[in-house]
Write a structure and sequence with these properties.
Blueprint lengths: L18 H42 L5 H21 L7 E7 L4 E5 L3 E2 L5 E5 L7 H4 L8 E10 L2 E12 L2 H6 L9 H6 L16 H7 L6 E6 L5 H15 L1 H4 L4 E5 L2 H7 L2 H4 L5 E5 L15 H8 L2 H12 L8 E5 L2 E5 L1 H13 L4 H23 L5 H13 L1 H10 L5 H10 L1 H8 L5 H7 L14 H14 L16 H11 L8 H8 L17 E4 L7 H9 L6 E5 L13 H6 L8 E5 L1 E2 L4 H7 L3 H4 L7 E2 L8 E4 L3 H15 L3 E4 L5 H7 L5 E3 L9 E4 L9 E7 L1 H5 L3 H11 L2 E9 L14
Length: 759
């Protein structure tokens, strides 16, 4: 929930405040401001100390031994990470306070801050002592007498302008002399305008959401709920919580957060840093393979086949078809000697390699070794006097001989995943052999496509990404065929301890984390031959991943520690998994799978949800909508017009005048005309930059996971294409609005929205 808009601390309509009450509030505000000033003063001192350490590293230069340079690199990188964690910008650092029955008072904030004597001035929101700030209720106050929210001015978290108290024990509060003030922090946050960026809800997250955030690391957690229930906020805060609570277990491995689109990632990119975490990587499923240029597009039918779990078997069989010895003996001429490889021996060598474990390319070494054994033995038969060094030289020359390389490529070629997928989908005979009994002939025909002149020119679609990743996992890196491996860095832990001690970083960083992060021998040294794995993976909009994409995600998290956030009722992609059980089937383990269902809609006004839920019976029969906690007093507008572009632009301009974020959701063909019609406003289409524009123009799928103050939907019938998947997408679009929704159309409305008397 955004917390970057100014909050009015004055009483709500109809409320009255006595002079005595006003004086009490002023006294409380003054006291809280003094504490916040002290916290910020200490934070500034900590930041200055870290900056001085970083400046020292910068002035030392790059001289010295390799070990000394490595130590400086690690210490500088670690200090910079510390500086980033201490940089909270204009976001509020301190936002809450707990008063307990035992008289102890705790201030809750974005990160932990101690005074010079290491007495806590501010407790990190992820610490166990802060849990009651989110989970205490009147039924279970968790030892809390009063919970206070500190409201701060927009863009300046240092200035306290309002307080909001919740009292769980009036008698205890009176005995402790606590003054009670406030108007409701959650609802104040709900009414603020959006900014095009998702701010965190760390100050107002509710008990059910906090239960999901603080669930144990191991196993699979499913967080499900209707639109507006805070699933994305829960996922982001869970990432920060896990990195804080399980720092030793996750050090060096980190957390992967997968979002649905680049626009979505732009929307949430500042949340984790603002929560004090830098060790989470945000990307999309497609972004996991940034090395693949995706410029093609599949039909829905083809995309559904490529996403089907059966494709894993088809790819495995296609690879097995490439692991076959020639049907007859092979002869080659070497040093004037005719060397013969019997067909039976080649078949035996290939069969043995197929029974071995490991990826395809790694097993190539065994094939090569045994083929060379056969050839060297044949050579010795012709030259029995050859021994020792000369024989080793013969073996090396045979290894480099083009005739031998051709034999190896015939029996066991070195392959990349892209080569395997390209061959499979452009060679009818190979596809027919690999897919026999798995895909029917019609599905096979849909998969076939023209073969480009070279692999570099082959066009890939987003649905191909998971196939290539699967094929890469089966093949392994081509380097494995040559046996090249980078050894781990010896003595990394001792070096890490020395770095922490030498540069005075004790208490700031954990040596185990330094060791895990830099054990490879240099700062941020990548290994691009195999996919990186993570200690925990979070997937937002999980309902839209296909089974093949889930297999791709599973390879990034072999331990199976995952958080899956989604709503099956919002599934819109062709081939997406249809149940959580189908998703679990593609994951390493479902041991300890837990489900948290969020059933309160904090975002979408009841008027908009009542309108959008007309689509539910046609899309997800029997799906109960979440309960909206607020009403806006504004029903959605239905605007029938002969000029949908002009009308939509006018509605968007009017909405812009009210303030907040505005998005026009329209079929892509209308985007240029809409941008032209909104020219003076400065609209931006089809780009993450649309979030920063006065009016954004987006296609329906790009709105996944986002929220806007005002949403204008143009020609909804063209957006949905009439099927259940399209109607679910329209449901998603309509529920992005937090203040107003307008439907502009010339053609008929989709059936569920067409009501008698619609304007």
């Amino acid at each position: 929930m955004p917390e970057d808009a100014e909050v009015d601390p004055s009483p709500g309509p109809g409320a009255r405040r006595t002079d005595a009450g006003a004086s009490a509030l002023e006294r409380e505000l003054t006291a809280e401001q003094e504490h916040v000033d002290r916290v910020y003063g200490r934070l500034d001192a900590m930041r200055d100390a870290a900056r001085r350490v970083a400046d020292t590293f910068d002035t030392e230069g790059a001289g010295g031994t390799h070990q000394a340079r490595w130590e400086r690199d690690v210490a500088l990188e670690t200090t910079r990470r510390r500086l980033a964690a201490l940089d909270v910008g204009g976001a509020p650092l301190c936002f809450g306070r707990l008063d307990r029955h035992d008289g102890v008072r705790w201030y809750i904030g974005r990160i932990g801050v101690d005074d010079e004597e290491h007495v806590p001035l501010l407790v990190d929101w992820r610490a166990p002592i802060a849990e009651p700030f989110y989970r205490a209720t009147a039924v279970d106050p968790m030892g809390v007498v009063r919970r206070r929210h500190l409201l701060t001015r927009h863009g300046c978290g240092r200035q306290v302008i309002g307080l909001d108290d919740e009292v769980f024990d009036q008698e205890a509060a009176a005995a402790l002399g606590l003054s009670i003030v406030g108007e409701g922090a959650l609802f104040a946050a709900l009414e603020r305008q959006r900014t095009g960026r998702m701010a965190d809800i760390v100050a107002t997250i509710q008990a059910a959401q906090d239960e999901a955030v603080r669930a144990p690391l191991d196993g699979i957690l499913v967080v499900t709920g209707s639109p507006g229930t805070g699933k994305t906020a829960v996922a982001l805060h869970r990432a920060a919580y896990l990195l804080y609570t399980y720092r030793r277990r996750l050090a060096g491995r980190g957390v992967l957060f997968l979002g649905p689109t680049p626009v979505f990632l732009r929307y949430v990119e500042h949340v984790l840093p603002s929560l004090g975490e830098q060790d989470a990587q945000l990307t999309t499923v497609r972004g996991l393979r940034a090395d693949l240029a995706v410029d093609g597009e599949d039909t829905a039918a083809v995309a559904a086949i490529k996403g089907d779990a059966r494709m894993a078997a088809v790819l495995a069989r296609a690879l097995a078809d490439r692991q076959r010895a020639p049907g007859r003996a092979v002869e080659l001429l070497f040093d004037g000697v005719r060397l013969r490889l019997p067909a039976a021996r080649l078949a035996a060598i290939t069969a043995r390699a197929r029974r071995a474990r490991g990826p395809h390319n790694a097993r190539r070494r065994g094939v090569e070794r045994r083929v060379l054994d056969e050839l060297v033995a044949a050579y010795r038969g012709a030259h029995p006097s050859v021994r020792g060094t000369r024989l080793a030289d013969v073996r090396e020359r045979l290894r480099a001989d083009p005739q031998v390389r051709a034999v190896l490529e015939r029996c066991w070629p070195v392959l990349t995943g892209a080569e395997l997928v390209r061959d499979l989908t452009t060679t009818p005979a190979l596809l027919a052999s690999a897919a026999a009994g798995v895909l029917d002939p019609g599905e096979q025909r849909l998969l076939l496509r023209p073969r480009a002149a070279s692999l570099a020119e082959q066009r890939w679609s987003s649905s191909d990404v998971a196939l290539i990743d699967e094929a890469d996992a089966l093949c392994g890196p081509p380097e494995a065929a040559r046996g090249r491996r980078r050894p781990p860095r010896a003595g990394a832990r001792a070096d890490a301890d020395a770095v922490v001690a030498a540069y005075g970083l004790g208490g700031l960083v954990d040596p185990a984390a330094v060791e895990a992060r830099y054990a490879g021998g240099s700062v941020a040294e990548p290994d691009d031959t195999e996919p990186r794995t993570y200690g925990h993976v979070l997937v937002d909009e999980a309902q839209d991943l296909t089974p093949m994409e889930w297999r791709m995600v599973a390879r990034r998290c072999p331990a199976g520690s995952m958080t899956l956030v989604g709503d099956l009722g919002q599934a819109t992609r062709p081939g997406a998994a249809t149940s959580w059980d189908e998703i679990f089937a593609a994951l390493p383990t479902r041991r300890g799978a837990r489900t948290v269902e969020l059933d309160v809609n904090y975002r979408t006004p009841a008027e908009i949800m009542d309108f959008a839920r007309r689509l539910l019976p046609a899309t997800v029969p029997g799906s109960p909508p979440a309960r909206s906690v607020r009403r806006s007093g504004r029903a959605p507008r239905l605007c029938r017009t002969d000029d949908p572009v002009g009308t939509a632009a006018a509605v968007a301009v009017d909405a812009r005048a009210e303030g907040g974020t505005v998005v026009v959701v329209a079929p892509p063909a209308l985007h240029p005309a809409l941008v032209d019609a909104l020219g003076d406003v400065g609209a931006v289409a089809d780009s993450p930059d649309a979030l920063d524009a006065p009016v954004g123009v987006l296609d329906a799928p790009a709105t996944k996971g986002l929220e806007f103050d005002h949403v204008v939907v143009v020609e909804p019938a063209e957006l949905v294409a009439g099927d259940a998947r399209g109607l679910r997408l329209l449901y998603v679009v309509c529920t992005r609005a937090t203040r107003s929704l307008a439907i502009v159309h010339r053609g008929p409305l989709p059936g569920p929205l067409a009501t008698p008397g619609s304007p």
